[in-house]
Fold this protein.
Amino acid sequence: MNSEVQPDAGNRVSTVTRSAAIFLVRALTPLHPGSGASVSGLADLPVQREAHTGLPVIYGSSVKGALRSWAPKKGLSQVEVRRIFGPEMGKGGESAGMALFTDARLLFLAVKSLEGVFAWVTCPFIVNRFFRDIEFAQRLTGGQANSTYPRVAWGHDGKALIAEDSAITVDLRGTKYVILEDVALQADPNLPRALDRAFEGISPYGEIKQRLAIVSDDTFRHLLSRGLSITPHIAINEETGTVSTLWFQEDIPPETIFYFSVFGDHQVLDRLLQKLPGPAHMGGDMTTGLGFVELLKFKVIGRREGSEG
């Protein structure tokens, strides 16, 4: 990794998409990937959201920028940082980075649960898109989607799919329920086995699975509308000691899990896989304890192995 030679335009795309790594992002503190000032709504400073779904997201540019600034703390040299992430802001014409970063998409939202304190909640739309993104990475790196995951075609508004040994169920007169925020759902212990396949070998999945609930898309949208916190913030006038500014900020709750992909050549991916897993920071307000996350390696895909690693 001691060279800064960049591929020419003709082979750059094939080089950058030669292999891929998918990472999970687990929020350790409230997370605020800011989208700027809001012109409507309760929050003056909302989080980034997908325009077509309304789901919270961390844009690829934010992921790349956060990891670039955190990379030296992870042990990457300045030469490696420039080669992988590209030059500093304002010098983009000099060269391009050797890695491509996707948006960090929502996978499991942390939601208050009557039993077990909190649950990780998702829905068929999110799970199916997650499977599709894995298969897309397989195809983009030159392989076939040889681990095709069956789609979750389920959407009963009154039920929640859970694991058989779930820690979030409540027994009411002989019937098990999952109570999330203000929603009571009958527990259905038929969590799709495709999730077990997708998370095979991922150590945190045992903990996740015991708290996991798949609810209908509509129920998930309702829980999402109640699940993000809106916190008041103030600024104090130093001369008078009184409040000079009041604003409300939207934050994603701790324990929420996102995922993103990084595409690059084998050297780039190997180096990132060595250094990225572990603590990092994404979003704003580091000095107030927001934005601390844990990066977890989820899956490695590439031509070198001929299949997912």
The chain has one domain: 15-33+48-227+252-302. Confidence is low (pLDDT under 50) at residues 1-10, 304-309.
